């Protein structure tokens, strides 16, 4: 393993690596992310980076918090970008560590463009997005050939913090069999109403996965019509991923974490015989 890590690119002085930390669990880091953690002089991290990930930083590395959480005092995006530029110009090896993947609702593109404008060399290190990896830890595949051949990833709020008006909700509701929503918990009632107005069934399965892949992971299974009340009653908290679609039913068979705790899995949750025979 050390030989493999040593063969990877080095984080050079004056460079910034825009790096995905994955959905939470340190084991889901990429090798290149681990390489960056072991070499960075300064790690500028956001609110969704787990402490177990930060614990992998090299001794002596400076950890700078730059998290943004809705409704709480947060660093402003231009200030974060300027800080990355300042650190790089000081000759620091800078790791910008972002939850999930930096280019999936992570504003990594904005930071990268700022670096380009300032003439700062950078590398993009992709990470496991919560909309895929987090759902997998809940036993929910984003695609399954008996359910869907398409999936749509959307954000639950725009830059002003409200439900995005730029989304064609009618077309989305009619055209996407599976919808994965980031940062949607606050507006889940409005979003559910819009999807039902677009023709989605009130009893369509919905799952909310909170703090995915961590020891605090919680999964709430509900329906489109009931999800707003269910979220409020459960006390489930962000960060959370919401998925709408028939793939949620597969959790009855694929909840591998639940099985470790004794859950009996259902072989045929979709109600028809599996086309693949074993043995």
CATH H-level homologous superfamily name of the largest domain? Tetrapyrrole methylase, C-terminal domain
What share of residues are in beta strands? 15-25%
| CATH architecture type of the largest domain | 2-Layer Sandwich
What general form does the structure show? globular
Quick one: CATH class of the largest domain? Answer: Alpha Beta
Mean pLDDT: 93
What is the gyration radius calculated from CA atoms?
A: 20 Å
Give the tally of β-strands: 10
Number of domains as seen in the coordinates: 2
Order of adjacent strands in the largest pleated sheet? 3-2-4-1-5
Number of helices: 11
Gap between N and C termini, in Å? 36 Å
- Series of H and E elements: HEHEHEHEHEHEHEHEEHEHH
- The CATH topology of the largest domain corresponds to Methyltransferase, Cobalt-precorrin-4 Transmethylase, Domain 2
Largest sheet: 5 strands, parallel
Q: Fraction of residues in helices?
A: 25-40%
Keywords: Membrane, Methyltransferase, Porphyrin biosynthesis, S-adenosyl-L-methionine, Transferase, Transmembrane, Transmembrane helix
Transmembrane segments: 15-34
EC number: 2.1.1.107
Enzyme class: transferase
List the helices and strands and how they pair.
Elements: H1 2-6, E1 16-20, H2 31-39, E2 42-45, H3 51-54, E3 62-65, H4 77-89, E4 94-98, H5 108-118, E5 122-125, H6 130-137, E6 152-155, H7 169-175, E7 179-182, H8 188-197, E8 205-210, E9 218-223, H9 227-234, E10 240-244, H10 251-254, H11 256-260
Parallel strand pairs: 1-4, 1-5, 2-3, 2-4, 6-7
Antiparallel strand pairs: 7-10, 8-9, 8-10
């Amino acid at each position: 393993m050390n030989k493999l890590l040593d063969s990877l690119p080095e984080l050079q002085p004056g460079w910034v690596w825009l790096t995905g930390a994955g959905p939470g669990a340190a084991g889901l880091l990429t090798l290149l992310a681990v390489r960056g953690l072991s070499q960075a002089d300064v790690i500028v991290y956001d609110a969704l980076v787990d402490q177990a990930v930060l614990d992998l930083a090299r001794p002596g590395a400076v950890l700078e918090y730059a998290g943004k959480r809705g409704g709480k005092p947060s660093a402003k995006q231009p200030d974060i970008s300027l800080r990355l530029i300042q650190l790089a110009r000081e000759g620091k090896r800078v790791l910008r560590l972002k939850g999930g993947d930096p280019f999936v609702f992570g504003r990594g593109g904005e930071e990268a463009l700022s670096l380009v404008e300032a003439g700062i060399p950078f590398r993009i290190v992709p990470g496991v997005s919560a909309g895929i990896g987090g759902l997998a830890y809940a036993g929910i595949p984003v695609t399954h050939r008996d359910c869907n051949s398409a999936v749509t990833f959307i954000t639950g709020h725009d830059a002003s913090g409200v439900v995005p008006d730029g989304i064609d909700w009618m077309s989305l509701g009619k055209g996407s069999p599976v919808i994965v929503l980031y940062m949607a918990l606050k507006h889940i009632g409005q979003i559910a109403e819009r999807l039902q107005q677009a023709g989605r069934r009130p009893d369509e399965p919905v799952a909310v996965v909170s703090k995915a892949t961590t020891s605090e992971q919680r999964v709430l299974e509900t329906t489109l019509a009931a999800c707003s009340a269910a979220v409020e009653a459960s006390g489930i908290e962000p960060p959370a991923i919401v998925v709408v679609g028939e793939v949620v039913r597969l959790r009855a068979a694929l909840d591998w974490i639940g099985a470790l705790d004794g859950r009996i899995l259902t072989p045929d949750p979709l109600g028809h015989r599996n086309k693949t025979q074993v043995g």
